[in-house]
Amino acid sequence: MKNLTSKLLLSTLIVLLFISCTQKTIKTEEKDLVKKFFLSNDTTKGALSIDVEVEIPIAFANKDVLKSIRTTIITNLFGDEYTSHANDSLVLLFTKDLYAEYKENNEPLLSEKDSANRYSFDNEHVVSGFSLLSDKKIYVYGIERYVYMGGAHGLETRNYYNFDLKTGKTITEVDLFKPEYKAELSELLKKRIVEESKELKETKETEPILSLEDTDFWADAIKPNGNFYITDEGINYVFNPYEIAPYYIGQTEVTIPFNRLKNILKPNSIIAYLVEKQAKI
């Protein structure tokens, strides 16, 4: 009887140890590389500057979920052709391919007359991938990218991916909001742009927006775009250059607290626990 009890106790301890060691949130590993590739032996002719700093998911309790999340992130960071490569080789392969493409596009132009006046051979590619909200139910990942390929200016973008840790799938607006949500959410986005400009006035010397009609925002274009990230306090939408305004406006981020979304949020969605927690504060 004593041996049986000892065996049961040992088995219980092993199970508890296994459970405690299981990765219950997404674990990531940082990969980075900064390098400049010159177009020719003449270093004055131009170069491609690459700066990569990304977090790659490497561990989670559910291997299928981890694979699904990793595939989505790698595809959006580098391209779907990189998903089968090992994490340690991803960044180096990506930079080599960027350099090969850069040379292919620009080397033939070096021999043209007055090429220095007609083309810019100084290119840049900067990409950052990072974790945001990460708990036992939701994992949020952001990608910032700046690309300059000559011309008047480069283009900077930010895109976000919210993952359901039960399925590994991205969380969409349809998962969060009631049907027919778009009209009300569009109006709320417009209101928050105006409200946040007034809030910004308190901390910076900028003129607040009194009405979108008095700005260069394209009011009719301001609507849910699927590019959002979930926080403990609400949902933040991000609009990249040219989406809702001219380039000079830059990126527009709109913060919407949960209490402003209560009329259109599904009551039993994956973020219900965050909404409830925030309501108690």
Summarize this structure as a short list of keywords or feature phrases:
alpha+beta; 5-stranded mixed β-sheet; Heat Shock Protein 90; Actin, Chain A, domain 4; 281 residues
What is the topological layout?
Blueprint: H1 2-21, E1 27-38, E2 47-59, H2 63-77, H3 87-106, H4 115-118, E3 123-134, E4 138-148, E5 155-164, H5 173-176, H6 182-201, E6 228-230, E7 234-239, E8 252-257, H7 258-261, H8 272-279
Parallel strand pairs: 2-3
Antiparallel strand pairs: 1-2, 3-4, 4-5, 6-7, 7-8
Structure description:
The structure is a single chain. The protein is α+β, with helices and mostly antiparallel strands and 281 residues long. The chain folds into two domains: 27-170, Heat Shock Protein 90; 174-279, Heat-shock cognate protein, ATPase (Actin, Chain A, domain 4, Alpha-Beta Complex). 34% of the residues lie in helices and 26% in strands. The protein has helices at residues 2-21, 63-77, 87-106, 115-118, 173-176, 182-201, 258-261, 272-279, and strands spanning 27-38, 47-59, 123-134, 138-148, 155-164, 228-230, 234-239, 252-257. Strand 3 (123-134) and strand 4 form a beta hairpin. It is flat and about 65 Å long. The protein starts with a helix and ends with a helix. Mean pLDDT is 89; it is low at 12-21.
